[in-house]
Design brief:
The complex is a heterotrimer of chains A (about 100), B (about 190) and C (about 250). With about 100 residues, chain A is an all-alpha fold. Chain A has one domain. Chain A has helices spanning about 5-35, 45-65, 75-99. In chain A, α1 (about 5-35) packs antiparallel against α2 (about 45-65) and α2 (about 45-65) packs antiparallel against α3 (about 75-100). The longest helix of chain A has 28 residues, at about 5-35. Chain B has a domain at about 60-190: Four Helix Bundle (Hemerythrin (Met), subunit A). Chain B is built from six helices and no strands. In chain B, α3 (about 60-85) runs antiparallel to α4. Chain C is built from nine helices and no strands. In chain C, about 70% of the residues lie in helices and about 0% in strands. Chain C has about 250 residues and is mainly alpha-helical. The chains are: A mainly alpha (about 100), B mainly alpha (about 190), C mainly alpha (about 250). The interface between B and C is medium-sized, with 23 and 22 residues.
C-alpha cells in the first residue's frame, strides 16, 4: 500500500470542499432571504456575482471531485474553456441586453 | 495503482474514460447554448422573468442543490475508497449517492406537482417554458445517472476484475449532473 | 466476398478491376450515402427552402403566400426527393453492417434497420407529400392548405422518437462491442444526439418562440448537433471501411 496519500487525508480534503460548496450555497440563500420579496428589480451586480460564484462552485467540483486538478493539460484547459465561454456568453448577453 | 504514490508530483491522468470527458464537454457546451438562449429571452422581458421566478420555491431549490452537492461528495469518496481497494466503504458511498439522487428526484417531482397545483405549466409564459425545459432535461440526465450508479454498484460487488476505470467514468457522469444543476439553479432561481 | 482476393490486383480492364476489389460493395454503399446526403441538404435547405422551416405562427394568408411563392421549387424539388428517398437504404445498410461487424448480437443491426426504415416514411416522405399536395392546387380551400402546412412540419418532428431509439441502439451496440469498430466517445455522441431528439418534444406545444418547430433551441441548436453527428458518423464509417479486414475478430487500426 502507498503511504503518503492515505485515504483519510483525501477524504478530509473532499469533505472540506463539500463544506465550502454548501457554505457558499447557504450564504447565497441568506443574502437572498434578506431581500424583501415582491418587488425585486433587475440587478446587474447581483446577477454578475451570482453567475460568477456559481461558476466558481462548478470549477471547484470539476477540479476537486472530478479530479481534474491531476488531469493532463487538454482536460484542464478544455473545462476552463467551457467555464470561460459560459461566463462570457451569459454576462455578455446580460450586459448587452440590459444596456 | 502506483499513481497515488506521489501526491506531491502526481503524473497527469484522466479520471475515467477520456471518451466520457468528450461527452461531458459536449453536453456542457450544449447546455451553455441553452443558457445563452435563455438569457437572450430574459433580458427582453426582465420584469416577467423576475415575477415568475418568485413563484418558485427557493427553499426546495436550495435544499436540492445541497443534496446534489452531498451526493457528489459521497460519489468522490466512493471513488477514493475503491481506488484504495476498500470496497465495502466504496459500496457505502455508492449507495449513499443513490439515496441522495433519489431524494433529489422525489423533491423535484414534488416541486413540479406544487407548481402544477398552482396552475403553472410549460406554456404559462416564456420563463416557465424555460423552467420546465431546463429542469426536465436535467432530470433526464439525472435518470441516466442512475444507470451509471448501477454500473458502479455492479463493479464494486464483483469479487474479481473490478474496473476502476468504469467506476471513475460513472462518477464523472454523476458529477456532471451536479454541476449542470448548479448553473440551472443560479439561472432559474437566483439571477436578477 | 472472398478473403483471398485482398492482395493481388486482379487482371482485367477498369470495370472488372473495380468489381473485383474486395471493398467495392462497401464503397458503393458509402458513396451512395454521400450522394443521398448531398441531395438531402441541397434540396431541403437550398432548393425548396423547407429548412430552416418557415414559421408555425404565420396566419393563413402568409402560409398561402409561402406556398405560392415557393410553388415551382417545392414541386420540382420534392419530385427529385421522391425519386431518391430510397437511397437512404444505403446509409442504413452501412450502419447496420457496422453493427454486424461488432461482436454483438445481430438483433442490434435488425432493430436499427427496422426503426430507420420506419423513420423515412413519416420524417421525409410524409412531410414532402403533404407540402406537395398543398402546393399542387393553390386554389384549394385555405383552411386545408394551412392544415397540410402544420401536418407536414409535425410529421417531420414526429420522427424524433424513432431517431432517439435508433441512436440508443447504436450506442448500446458500440458500448458492448469487443471488436473496436467505433471508439467509445462516438457511443456517447449517440447519447447526445438522442437527447436532442427529446428537445424536439416541446414543438408540439408551441407555435412561437424558441421551442416552436423553427425555434432557436428546438431547431437551430438541434440541427447544429445533428450536423456534427452526421459528419462524425460518415467519417467513422469511412474509417471502418478502410480498416475492414473481413474477419470476425477485432477491427485492425
Amino acid at each position: 500500500m502507498h503511504t503518503p496519500n492515505t485515504p483519510a487525508l483525501s477524504d478530509k480534503r473532499l469533505t472540506l470542499v463539500w463544506v465550502i460548496l454548501s457554505a457558499i450555497t447557504l450564504a447565497q440563500l441568506l443574502v437572498l432571504v434578506g431581500d424583501s420579496p415582491g418587488h425585486l428589480n433587475p440587478n446587474a451586480v447581483a446577477t454578475f456575482s451570482i453567475i460568477l460564484i456559481s461558476l466558481f462552485k462548478v470549477r471547484l467540483i470539476i477540479r476537486e471531485f472530478m479530479e481534474v486538478r491531476h488531469a493532463p493539460p487538454w482536460l484542464r484547459w478544455g473545462t476552463d474553456a467551457w467555464l470561460a465561454t459560459t461566463a462570457v456568453g451569459l454576462l455578455g448577453t446580460y450586459m448587452i441586453g440590459m444596456a | 495503482m502506483a499513481l497515488a504514490a506521489h501526491p506531491t508530483h502526481p503524473q497527469p491522468r484522466v479520471p475515467g474514460q477520456p471518451d466520457m470527458w468528450f461527452f461531458i464537454l459536449f453536453e456542457a457546451f450544449l447546455f451553455t447554448s441553452y443558457f445563452i438562449v435563455y438569457m437572450v429571452c430574459r433580458v427582453q422581458d426582465p420584469a416577467t422573468f423576475l415575477q415568475s421566478q418568485q413563484l418558485l420555491s427557493l427553499p426546495i431549490g436550495v435544499f436540492n442543490t445541497l443534496i446534489l452537492l452531498v451526493s457528489s461528495w459521497s460519489m468522490a469518496r466512493c471513488v477514493q475508497a475503491s481506488r484504495d481497494h476498500h470496497y465495502p466503504a466504496a459500496l457505502n458511498g455508492a449507495y449513499l449517492t443513490i439515496a441522495f439522487g433519489l431524494c433529489f428526484a422525489a423533491l423535484k417531482v414534488l416541486e413540479w406537482t406544487l407548481e402544477f397545483d398552482k396552475g403553472i405549466g410549460i406554456t404559462t409564459n416564456e420563463y416557465f417554458s424555460f423552467y420546465f425545459f431546463l429542469t426536465g432535461m436535467h432530470f433526464l440526465h439525472l435518470l441516466i445517472g442512475f444507470i451509471f450508479l448501477g454500473i458502479v454498484v455492479a463493479q464494486l460487488r464483483r469479487g474479481h476484475q473490478r474496473s476502476q476505470t468504469l467506476v471513475e467514468t460513472s462518477a464523472t457522469y454523476w458529477h456532471m449532473v451536479d454541476f449542470l444543476w448548479i448553473n440551472i439553479f443560479a439561472l432559474l432561481y437566483v439571477v436578477r | 466476398m472472398s478473403v483471398t482476393a485482398v492482395d493481388p490486383a486482379p487482371a482485367g480492364g477498369g470495370l472488372s478491376r473495380w468489381r473485383n476489389h474486395p471493398k467495392f460493395e462497401l464503397w458503393l454503399a458509402f458513396w451512395t450515402m454521400i450522394v443521398f446526403y448531398n441531395f438531402f441538404f441541397i434540396l431541403f435547405f437550398a432548393y425548396t427552402r423547407v429548412q430552416p422551416p418557415p414559421e408555425p405562427a404565420w396566419a393563413i394568408p402568409r402560409v398561402l403566400e409561402w406556398f405560392t411563392s415557393h410553388r415551382f421549387n417545392l414541386l420540382s424539388g420534392f419530385a427529385i426527393v421522391f425519386l431518391v428517398t430510397g437511397l437512404t437504404g444505403a446509409a442504413n445498410a452501412l450502419i447496420a453492417y457496422s453493427m454486424r461487424r461488432m461482436s454483438v448480437s445481430p438483433a442490434f443491426a435488425h432493430a436499427y434497420l427496422v426503426i430507420y426504415a420506419l423513420s423515412a416514411v413519416p420524417g421525409m416522405l410524409l412531410t414532402c407529400i403533404a407540402i406537395t399536395v398543398a402546393a399542387m392546387r393553390p386554389e384549394r380551400d385555405p383552411q386545408v392548405i394551412a392544415w397540410l402546412y402544420d401536418f407536414a412540419f409535425m410529421a417531420f418532428d414526429g420522427t424524433m422518437g424513432v431517431f432517439l431509439i435508433g441512436s440508443l441502439v447504436w450506442m448500446v451496440a458500440i458500448l458492448l462491442d469487443k471488436n473496436r469498430v467505433f471508439p467509445k466517445w462516438f457511443a456517447y455522441l449517440n447519447l447526445c444526439n438522442a437527447l436532442t431528439e427529446v428537445v424536439v418534444a416541446p414543438a408540439w406545444m408551441f407555435t412561437e418562440g424558441v421551442f416552436a418547430w423553427d425555434g432557436a433551441i428546438t431547431w437551430w441548436i438541434d440541427v447544429a448537433v445533428f450536423m456534427i453527428y452526421t459528419t462524425v458518423f460518415i467519417t467513422l464509417l469511412r474509417n471502418m471501411i478502410i480498416r475492414e479486414d473481413f474477419s470476425d475478430g477485432p477491427l485492425p487500426d
